[in-house]
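Hello,

I think I submitted the spermidine job twice by accident. Can you confirm which output corresponds to this input? Input:
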Amino acid sequence: MKNLIRAFAAIMIVAVVLLFTTSRLNSSQGFSSKDTLTVYNWGDYIDPDLIKKFEKQTGLKVIYQTFDSNEAMMTKIAQGGTTFDVAVPSEYAISKMKEDDLLLPLDHAKIPNLKYIDPRFLNLSFDKNNQYSIPYFWGTVGIVYNPEMLGGKKITSWNDLWDKSLKNQILLVDGAREVMGMGLNSLHYSLNDTNEEHLKEAKKKLDRLTPNIKAIVGDEIKMLLANEEAAIGLVWSGDAAEIMWENEKLDYVVPKEGSNLWFDNMVIPKTAKNIKGAHEFINFMLDPKNAAQNTEYVGYSTPNKKALQYLPKDISKDTRFYPDSEMTSKLEVYENLGKKMLAHYNELFLEFKMHKK
Ligand code: SPD
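Support: Only one job matched these inputs. Its output is below.
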């Protein structure tokens, strides 16, 4: 009998230890429960003080994880094994995630702060009636450059970047659509071109740019350009704004051949475990004061009309970062090109990166 009791006690101890270890592991790997909220966002894309404020206000513990491309984010959510409650994809990725049945419809009654969003950013073609997505930040793709390092030269076009004098002077953001888009736009083709000949031509043209490319990098592009490690960068507009706060010598231009207009939006992935908390978080980020604080911290443009009132005029009136409808109507939004074509863009971009090495 004694042996039986000892064996039973040993089993109980092992079970308790296993339970404890699993729950520790789960929470460190991004698994949520009712008391936690797991947010999956781009790197450098939120003021950490707002996360603390949200935790204090709601009693929820935020588990925050980051990604650096729509492609990486989609793959991670699609492969399962995660329980992200909120994610922040761009427009073409939202359209793809809807197609792949990866998103939950939103309950607008739980997002009353939606009324503060400028109607210009609502009901867009990738998500009619904002059934699945709520605007977070928006912007353009363009060139940030240091006129002093270029002997006073102004950059106005994508094609300026192929100038032989710019050897080793260009940094590129590590994005397949952005870099392929630069190649396509420089040839006056659409950012959403699917013609194989045009894509090959764009890739060849990009290969000819390699002597001028110093590196293809992630968020560190901001620090490198602000520290004058290179004179030119292909960047998202909000990164340009942040770089220019750090180093006032730099300027930002949307090239004359055309460029990309993008929208990052908050969504609730289908694997969410805390749907109530996810709505609370989305609504919290839409509060005008919170949205203004976030904008001042990250440098990106807010779609929140009321938040603009809380921002310094030199930010909200800067047309390089808040272009009007007339200017944005000349830009292209990335389309969901379908699984095969998106994979092809990625392949060409990878080949280009290998060619660069
Ligand atoms: N460091 C945060 C960058 C987020 C930029 N999102 C841009 C998406 C363009 N498709």
